[in-house]
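Q: Got a minute? One more chain.
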Amino acid sequence: MIPDFLSQALAPDRWPMFALISARLSGLMLAAPVWSLTPLPRAARAAITVLLAVLLLPLAPKTPLPERVLDLPLPLAMELMVGIAIGLTAAVMVHGVTLGGEVLSLQMGLSLGPALSPMPDTQVSGIGQIKSWLAILIYLGIGGHLILLRGVADSLQALPPGTAMDFVSGAQAAVALGGTVFSSAVRTAAPVMVTLLLVNLALAILSRAVPQLNTMMVSLPVTFGVGLVMIGVSLPIVASVIGGWMETLPDHVATVLHSFQLAH
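A: Always. Here it is, folded:
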């Protein structure tokens, strides 16, 4: 016997709504951390999207859908945009932490690794990858991937698929989320960046006071060692910043959905 939710999904009159929900979930899969990871096969991602769309279909209220098939591309594109915006609420923090780690790699001199590597074909990873995995682990530990799925489920009531949306305001909200990448990068990398700046100032003063000192030979090991120590010391601070952002994910998702709603 076919379950009720499956019979609803197979009903021809529900196929357009199923397509709209799938488009919203596809946008989430394209932008959200973990769901958008390259190691996750596309076939598995597509199967998860279809399964979630079937499960969420009964939650979607009945809304007037386009009468012709040719009128569906624009609503599908809007639903894809909504899903991407929901996924960006968590992706901006992960990418910001990664960007901050890459800046620290450059400041510590680790960017010379690929040039000095005895095997040039081997990719040399920097601090950015370590911090990226730290952010993803905290994201998974808090259950951020499930929070985003719950946000998509709640959005079916707050912003029913197929309804008119404020595309301009929604796009501005998505762009504003992209701007927070730099603020999150600064917040997570600030302790180490300030310390390395002071170290470079001290080395500059030392080179002026002792001209015989080969500062170029001393600066690389000093900045590298101090940077590694400060990265270890600042990990609790970085973790608290990432955790605080991830805990406010429901509020960020609600803000994004509100920006897509037309003013009444």
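A: Residues 117-122 have pLDDT under 50 and may be disordered.
Q: Perfect, thanks.
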